[in-house]
Amino acid sequence: MTERLSPAERTAALESLLVERELVDPSVMDGFIGRYERDVGPMNGARVVATAWTDPSYLEWLRKDATAAIADLGFSGPQGEHMVVLEQTDEVHHVVVCTLCSCYPWPVLGLPPSWYKDPAYRSRVVREPRAVLAEMGCPLPDDVGIQVWDSSAEVRYLVVPQRPAGTEELGVDELAPLVTRDAMVGVARL
Amino acid sequence: MDSIADMGGVLGYGPASRPMADEPPFAEPWEGRAFAMTVLAMGRISGRNLDAFRHALERLSPLDYLADGYYGRWLNAAELMLVESAVLAPGAVDTRVRRDRGEDVAEPAFPEPRKPEYAPSAPGSLREVADPPRLAVGQAVVTADVHPRGPSKLPAYLRRRRGTVTAVRPAHVLPDTHGVFVGENPQQVYTVGFDSAELWGPDAEPFRLHADLFDSYLAAVTGTEDS
């Protein structure tokens, strides 16, 4: 069997070939990388959730047309063409996966974390979600029903976690930092 | 396609990993380069035909799909598409690596590109269709018995299963044809709910599974709902 070349070396080689062909511009690449390192991430979704917690009319808009309601806060773009929100309750726990690739709502959560892309998660959360959630540190009481959402087309799901008790006095700016990426996919509760 | 990418229900990958707080988007610098390059280069060769890129991912060998993780498979799928459209010669990337290491190797010449014919009718994947939705919320359905060699968004674990339409979504371009550059053929998409016992047998954990499925994957059935 031939030696497997490292992905770092192969990435550098492909970049130099595409630059020679004038198909990519490294400075455009830098801008693109920086955008997903700094500007597009779970802080966007946290803003959506905190707004929904504090503004009943915004929550109603999210339920009716999440794409528009989310765009109204400034978040739209690739992998967010048609957004749907799923609300956690005392009785129902939602969890999202993409078994076929790793589709994920980029405008509100950024690029997917490693566990979401991991074959262990993609393969088993549609088969034994309660066991998988427990392994990930999110054991659920037996009386909480589980709804698993396999993002197998272009619909993208954002989970709205339950507002933590004791936060009734807080506003959007104080609430948003409490909302985690994992809770917005459904592998953690707040 | 029946492939390594269609993972739902497969066992053997071990326990799920615990999430890390504040994980950066790219674990190593090459991952960010591979990400940006793939997105930009796909635009040049395929007009951002995301379905064609996903089909390239599922055509990788299991080793090439898994060995270097998510951005490793992006890199390999990008290389596959660039070679297929003759933007790069076969072996050009590996040869460049060896040259960069100081080996005395002859690099292949750049070929004459043969880009696929591709003109999307609109940006993105959502389209308007003339016909009203064929299925209504609450309709019992059974999924198709298919064994696709090309792109498909009907996962293997959801074939030949009975479920219930739980939402009507916008029409999308059909990956089965769009992903191989033979037409958008937009179809209505439905969210279909399945009982876990229908998917994994009577001893399954009790839960509901929802998936977003294209019109042609579904046949209406008469009778009671699945649960």
From TrEMBL, chain A:
| Entries under Pfam families matching the protein | NHase_alpha
The uppermost taxa in this organism's lineage are:
Bacteria, Bacillati, Actinomycetota, Actinomycetes, Pseudonocardiales
EC top class named in words: lyase
Gene name, per UniProt, is: nthA
Which reactions is this enzyme annotated as catalysing? an aliphatic primary amide = an aliphatic nitrile + H2O
Which molecular-function annotations from GO does this UniProt entry contain? nitrile hydratase activity
Q: Which residues form the Nitrile hydratase alpha/Thiocyanate hydrolase gamma domain?
A: 8-188
Keyword flag DNA repair: no
Name this protein carries in UniProt: nitrile hydratase
Q: What is its EC number?
A: 4.2.1.84
Q: Which family does it belong to?
A: Belongs to the nitrile hydratase subunit alpha family.
Q: Which SUPFAM superfamilies match?
A: Nitrile hydratase alpha chain
The record's keywords, sorted A to Z, are:
Lyase, Metal-binding
Automatic annotation (TrEMBL), chain B:
* One annotated GO molecular function: nitrile hydratase activity
Q: Where is the Nitrile hydratase beta subunit domain?
A: 127-219
Q: Does the keyword Lyase apply?
A: yes
**Top-level class of the enzyme under EC nomenclature:** lyase
E.C. no? 4.2.1.84
Ranges where the Nitrile hydratase beta subunit-like N-terminal domain occurs: 1-107
Q: Which reaction does it catalyse?
A: an aliphatic primary amide = an aliphatic nitrile + H2O
**Which residues lie within the region annotated Disordered?**
98-129
Q: Which UniProt keywords apply?
A: Lyase
Query: Which NCBIfam families does the entry link to?
Result: nitrile_beta
What's its job?
Answer: NHase catalyzes the hydration of various nitrile compounds to the corresponding amides.
Give the family per the record: Belongs to the nitrile hydratase subunit beta family.
Name of this protein? nitrile hydratase
Native source species: Actinomycetospora endophytica
